[in-house]
Specification:
Blueprint lengths: L10 E11 H5 L4 E12 L2 H6 L13 E13 L4 E8 L23 H6 L11 E9 L4 E9 L10 H4 L12 E11 L16 E20 L14 E19 L8 E10 L7 E12 L9 E11 L1 H13 L9 E14 L2 E11 L6 E2 L2 E5 L3 E10 L2
Antiparallel strand pairs: 1-2, 2-3, 3-4, 4-5, 5-6, 6-7, 7-8, 8-9, 9-10, 10-11, 11-12, 12-13, 13-14, 14-17, 15-16
Length: 393
């Protein structure tokens, strides 16, 4: 219900990957070579019907067959340090939340803030960028990640990024740079050696990170003369800002389990990130939720979860809406924030087959944009139901 219209959609993804242990294959110790590809098909509900910033499905993408990642990783110093070079998707390692992973909405994977604010959505599914990533395990508890990547995985800001890089083979290095760094602190983690006693406390992981993109970014309210872009006297050329950045924090914490060897547990997560409001459509993104593993006796691998995603529209984008209402379109809706609620249940049919039922509700889609079919009113709040099936082989 709600949205532009009432309808259904199907999205499909086939993902294939090959990893080579270079020690076994070529006698080169500590090396791993990886190549992966994607085949997307179907019609994207979020793009055509919902118009939300936080896409209903994390696998939504333009129909295509594309290269995804192509990299080589070398481990050093007995595995305490490793370096990865090549085409990489940052959502595989940075900003990751363990307890957010079961949810379908895309914001619980690669969050809404970087997906909206970074050029072409940043190097994340289904795109990737050339770059280098460094990881060091400073102690059993502390790990540091850092990397530098091409600033725009599509190659330019003109048109659909996925169509610009339609097969994932645009190996760009001329679009500025994206720097990212993250510190991870893990507590009460299960030991690698099964003979070592389990820690008495509940496991958790806490992360603090930042990213910086060196490209120039357009102001979302003012022109080069300082006038509002909605002002009839404006020259229509947005002011430019050098660089863009965000700071983020992620927390994953198990809060209950009957015993150390029990499959049943409750985990909570929270992820918060902010960015400047003058050049970004979303200046604050927040995720939070709770998951229950093994909710019923005999269903050890099932997961039930409830989560919320919040995306606040940036201050200058809101200001442009106010100016538009003042200068040209009285009553023009002012965007504020989009909120997504999701309830989901993963049912493990077999070790290789999973079914998932899902319900989502969107409050003020895209922060409260006008309905393209009736610009005098906003896009209505939306209820979405879905089912996903996953087969691994």
């Amino acid at each position: 219900s709600g949205g532009v219209s009432r309808e259904g959609a199907y999205d499909g993804l086939t993902q294939a990957s090959i990893q080579v242990d270079t020690s076994k294959a070529f006698g080169l110790p500590g090396g791993t070579f990886n190549v992966s590809g994607l085949q997307n098909h179907g019609r994207n509900l979020s793009q055509h019907t919902l118009l939300t910033l936080q896409s209903a499905s994390g696998i939504e993408a333009d129909a295509s067959t594309r290269l995804w990642e192509l990299w080589y990783q070398q481990s050093l110093l007995d595995g305490r340090v490793d370096v990865k070079l090549g085409q990489q998707s940052l959502d595989q390692e940075f900003m990751v939340s363990q307890y957010a992973a079961p949810f379908m909405n895309a914001t619980f994977g690669w969050p809404v803030l970087p997906s909206v604010d970074l050029p072409s959505g940043g190097p994340a599914y289904p795109l990737s960028s050339l770059g280098a990533r460094f990881r060091a395990k400073l102690s059993d508890a502390i790990t540091v990640l850092a990397g530098v990547f091409d600033g725009n995985p599509a190659g330019s800001n003109a048109g659909d990024p996925q169509q610009q890089n339609s097969h994932g083979t645009n190996f760009n290095l001329g679009n500025g740079a994206l720097f990212i760094a993250e510190v991870q602190y893990a507590i009460n983690q299960p030991p690698a050696d099964a003979k070592t006693p389990q820690p008495s406390g509940l496991p958790g992981t806490y992360k603090l990170g930042l990213w910086y993109n060196t490209q120039n970014f357009a102001d979302l309210q003012h022109d080069t003369n300082g006038l509002s872009l909605a002002n009839p006297a404006s020259n229509g050329i947005p002011a430019r800002h050098r660089g863009d950045y965000s700071v983020y924090a992620v927390a994953d914490q198990m809060v209950w389990r009957p015993s150390a060897d029990s499959p049943q547990s409750v985990g909570v997560f929270a992820r918060v990130m902010g960015a400047p409001g003058d050049r970004n459509l979303v200046d604050l993104g927040v995720n939070a939720g709770v998951t229950l593993k093994a909710p019923f006796k005999g269903r050890d691998n099932d997961i039930a979860g409830l989560a919320i995603g919040y995306a606040r529209i940036g201050s200058n984008a809101q200001g442009l809406d106010r100016d538009t209402a003042s200068f040209s379109t009285p009553g023009y809706p002012q965007r504020s924030a989009e909120t997504i609620l999701e309830a989901t249940y993963q049912y493990q049919v077999a070790p290789w087959w999973q079914l998932q039922a899902d319900f989502q509700y969107a409050f003020r889609p895209a922060g409260g944009i006008p309905n393209p079919a009736n610009p005098s009113e906003r896009v209505h709040d939306e209820a979405v139901v879905g089912v996903r099936t996953v087969v691994n082989f």
